[in-house]
Amino acid sequence: MLRVPLFYLLLLSVPVFGFLEESEGVIPAERTCNPEEERAAQSCKNGLTVLSATFESIQGQHESFTASDHIGINQNCKTSLTCLKTYVGCSSITQEDVDLLTKKCGYMKYLTGAFYACSQKLIARKESSPCVLNFFAGDLETEETRCSEWTSNRACLKWTIRDACGRSYWKQYKPYWHMRSGLMNCA
């Protein structure tokens, strides 16, 4: 019977690729990827496309998402982020891709998770409040229209969220409001 100390098993179970890049000083832009890594990186990019489409649909339909959607989004984000981080430098995957997906995932997980109860309360106010209607609208025609509507409705949204859900929900949501504004490329 072969006995291997636990230390060696742990050492062997750690992914080697992370250490190789750091120890060899490989810059992701200069990384040379073999064909298998390129295929895996392309698969990562396909997952990124799906999550980006989910992000776009969440903008205007997050009131229809459920707890199970949150679980799925959370798992897909973890999987895609791990994959992208692993293959930075292959198939034109950059650190900026990782950072952008991290932001999008953070926003989607918050909206479908911690903000879910407040979203449900805001639904009842959609018809009477233009800023809440704008909050749930993801289909405004142009980026300029979307940004001006989003920016001009900030104060109204703040007071509506505070009134419907409580002060703490606005405090929690405020950084995500700024994040969404940045993701929408609004100045």
UniProtKB/TrEMBL annotation:
InterPro entries: T20D4.11-like_dom (IPR002542). Coiled coil: none annotated. It comes from the Eukaryota. Pfam families: DUF19. Keywords: Signal. The keyword Hydrolase does not apply. Residues 33-186 form the T20D4.11-like domain. Residues 1-18 form the signal peptide. PANTHER family: DUF19 DOMAIN-CONTAINING PROTEIN, PROTEIN CBG19148-RELATED. This is T20D4.11-like domain-containing protein.
